[in-house]
From TrEMBL:
Residues 299-361 are annotated as: Disordered. Plays an important role in endoplasmic reticulum-associated degradation (ERAD) that mediates ubiquitin-dependent degradation of misfolded endoplasmic reticulum proteins. By controlling the steady-state expression of the IGF1R receptor, indirectly regulates the insulin-like growth factor receptor signaling pathway. Involved in inhibition of lipid droplet degradation by binding to phospholipase PNPL2 and inhibiting its activity by promoting dissociation of PNPL2 from its endogenous activator, ABHD5 which inhibits the rate of triacylglycerol hydrolysis. CDD domains: UAS_ETEA (cd02991), UBA_FAF2 (cd14414), UBX_UBXN3B (cd16120). The gene is FAF2. InterPro entries: FAF1_2-like_UAS (IPR049483), Thioredoxin-like_sf (IPR036249), UAS (IPR006577), UBA-like_sf (IPR009060), UBA_8 (IPR054109), Ubiquitin-like_domsf (IPR029071), UBX_dom (IPR001012), UBX_domain-protein (IPR050730). Identified in a complex that contains SEL1L, OS9, FAF2/UBXD8, UBE2J1/UBC6E and AUP1. Interacts with YOD1. Interacts (via N-terminus) with UBQLN2 (via C-terminus). Interacts with PNPLA2 and UBAC2. Interacts with ZFAND2B; probably through VCP. Interacts with LMBR1L. This is FAS-associated factor 2. GO terms for cellular component: endoplasmic reticulum; lipid droplet. SMART domains: UAS. One of its GO terms (biological process) is ERAD pathway.
Length: 445
């Protein structure tokens, strides 16, 4: 469960926060978060600035001083193995030792006084890390130039990156701090570190990170691990969800002894890695299960949304269809009203029907499309338009029609056209006193 101060963070920021706490050993989550926020969540820059601050170099943000950046080294269960230098043997050995003792004491005393005074004149250049990867590469090149290429595979990255990879891969990380000025460093590198059996063990069982303490990157790691003498080796691993030093080896150790000590440390702490792997697998399985559940939920949600969308579209389609039908119905009713009004208007405008005794009258029998018959009299002098208006005013007549005569068979020009702008009269159309005309329905044409 995330700490309360992590609740408003993204998953990536939470991971960086926990990673930064592992690398620095800072207990306060608020302080870790504050430092990361000052560096815009750039964990590499935050770790470097934190280490520089502990070496006496002011932070660019001038935060209040706190304890040095380091992995967890306060565990009382850390395995420590120190190889002391052999005591002189015989009168000659003790004589040489006693003769050289004053000179050695004077040399190291003057050297320490000189270094102490130099700090007030010029700050230690190692206190500011500017190119940590460059420090690692430089040490690798100098190591190969002096001891050859037969050596354990160096991790080509910063100390923080090595910790991150060891944590991610659940592997042991062996850290070697090289003291250039120490009398045992040369023998250790040449005879122990480059021994084939040591190379095989390191390359197959762990990550190996090394740097000289004369380099800024090595110096800051030295300040974090606080070695007592050289050569110095520290075994680091993920323990109780924190990167922890589980073994310290100091002094000139022989190849077989080194293999035994490293194997002992790994065997003693292997259960922590196994437990962490099981926990990580369980978390991964839980995450996969949760992801599958989320995907199933999202798929179900999308299916429900799709069903709802189709229902909305169907309702919208029905609504538009009903509106269209209603509009068509209203339009049809309006058309019928207009048609009826026009029929009534035509009927009102018709001239009166001539009497049967009128010699200029014409009796016309109309045969309608529904096989009904209508009879009416018209005057010879009236236009054929009157015949059309009469038929149009009838309730049973079609909406659009033409009038045809049978002998000879022809269509009477009852409505104005380009050929007949002014329709002829009945007499001009050649109708007789009694005629039978046929009404042809043109509504569907």
């Amino acid at each position: 469960m995330a700490a309360p101060e992590e609740r408003d963070l993204t998953q990536e920021q939470t991971e960086k926060l926990l990673q930064f706490q592992d690398l620095t050993g800072i207990e306060s989550m608020d302080q870790c978060r504050h430092t990361l926020e000052q560096h815009n969540w750039n964990i590499e820059a935050a770790v470097q600035d934190r280490l520089n601050e502990q070496e006496g170099v002011p932070s660019v943000f001038n935060p209040p001083p706190s304890r040095p950046l380091q992995v967890n080294t306060a565990d009382h269960r850390i395995y420590s193995y120190v190889v002391s230098r052999p005591q002189p043997r015989g009168l000659l050995g003790w004589g040489y030792y006693l003769i050289m003792l004053p000179f050695r004491f004077t040399y190291y005393t003057i050297l320490d006084i000189f270094r102490f005074a130099l700090r007030f004149i010029r700050p230690d250049p190692r206190s500011r890390v500017t190119d940590p990867v460059g420090d690692i590469v430089s040490f690798m090149h100098s190591f190969e130039e002096k001891y050859g290429r037969a050596h354990p595979v160096f991790y080509q990255g910063t100390y923080s990156q090595a910790l991150n990879d060891a944590k991610r891969e659940l592997r042991f990380l062996l850290v070697y701090l090289h003291g250039d000025d120490h009398q045992d460093s040369d023998e250790f590198c040449r005879n122990t570190l480059c021994a084939p059996q040591v190379i095989s063990l390191i390359n197959t069982r762990m990550l190996f990170w090394a740097c000289s303490t004369n380099k800024p990157e090595g110096y800051r790691v030295s300040q974090a691990l606080r070695e007592n003498t050289y050569p110095f080796l520290a075994m680091i691993m993920l323990k109780d969800r924190r990167m922890t030093v589980v073994g310290r080896l100091e002094g000139l150790i022989q190849p077989d002894d080194l293999i035994n000590q490293l194997t002992f440390i790994m065997d003693a702490n292997q259960t922590y890695l196994v437990s962490e792997r099981l926990e990580r697998e369980e978390r991964n399985q839980t995450q996969v299960l949760r992801q599958q559940q989320d995907e199933a939920y999202l798929a179900s949600l999308r299916a429900d949304q799709e069903k709802e969308r189709k229902k909305r579209e169907e309702r919208e389609r029905k609504r538009r269809k009903e509106e269209e039908v209603q509009q068509q119905k209203l339009a049809e009713e309006k058309r019928r009203r207009n048609l009826q009004e026009e029929k009534e208007k035509k009927l009102e405008c018709l001239p009166p029907e001539p009497s049967p005794d009128d010699p200029e009258s014409v009796k016309i029998i109309f045969k309608l499309p529904n096989d009904s018959r209508v009879e009416r009299r018209f005057h010879f002098s009236q236009s054929l338009t009157v015949i059309h208006d009469f038929l149009f005013s009838l309730k049973e007549s079609p909406e659009k029609f033409q009038i045809e005569a049978n002998f000879p068979r022809r269509v009477l020009p009852c409505v104005p056209s380009e050929e007949w702008p002014n329709p002829p009269t009945l007499q001009e159309a050649g109708l007789s006193h009694t005629e039978v005309l046929f009404v042809q329905d043109l509504t569907d044409e």
